[in-house]
Design goal:
Layout lengths: L8 H10 L10 E3 L2 E7 L4 E8 L1 H14 L5 E2 L6 H8 L13
Parallel strand pairs: 3-4
Antiparallel strand pairs: 1-2, 2-3
């Protein structure tokens, strides 16, 4: 029988803020700065979930991209995209759309 692991306070806070149903464990990293999960794609790193110190995670993903010979990482936000654009010198590349049925 497998043991279930209780989510940390950080994970519970993230889930309640975002509405995400679970924490994605692909390439999962957790430390005193928060946590992040990501995928390494052909030409960028796709940040799946991130929580905590934005400056730390920005450097983490910039360094990780360089280690893999990539020139960018991408992420989505439900918060103010203009603020994230200014803070991380990011550009908006797409817009998500939802159709309720």
């Amino acid at each position: 029988m497998g043991q279930s692991v209780m989510p940390s306070e950080q994970q519970l806070d993230y889930l309640s803020r975002t509405g995400d149903p679970y924490i994605d464990k692909r390439n999962y990293t957790e430390n005193k700065h928060g946590f992040a999960s990501y995928e390494i794609c052909d030409n960028h790193i796709l940040v799946i979930q991130v929580y905590g110190d934005g400056k730390y995670w920005d450097k983490f993903f910039r360094d990780l991209a360089k280690e893999h010979g990539l020139q960018s990482y991408i992420f989505s936000t439900r918060r103010n995209p203009a603020a994230f654009s200014r803070r991380f010198n990011a550009s908006v590349i797409e817009t998500w759309m939802r159709v309720k049925v």
